[in-house]
Design goal:
Elements (H helix, E strand, L loop, with lengths): L7 H14 L1 H10 L5 H15 L7 H15 L2 H14 L3 H15 L1 H26 L2
Length: 137
Amino acid sequence: MSGEQKSARFNQGMETRRQVLGDSYVNGTVASKTAFDEPFQDLITEAAWGHVWSRPNWTKRERSIVTIALLAALGHDEEVAMHAQATRNTGATKDDLMEAMLHVAIYAGVPAANHAIKIVKAALQQIEDTTVSEEGK
């Protein structure tokens, strides 16, 4: 779709993607996009962010919790970390994430939850460190 007009769903998806992941992350993804992965980036922006994350039925907090649990259950470590970082923007709390990890342990297995907890803890610590650093400026 390079050079083409993007759909309304794509534009909504990009807005939601920025709200959840932050401008810095999305700007980095857009800047590193190539002709090879542009169709994929367009797909996830329109489908995941425009169709699913933009629906009004759940809050971004609720979607964040469910997304992290699903990613943890499937062992998608990089995505778990990215979405755990995004809780800064979605409103999902440490308690929300621990409850999600308990569900992962019961429904997807203790090893999956144990590994994801390490990733989530690191992401939450990074958020805390960044917040303290920003407050100190």
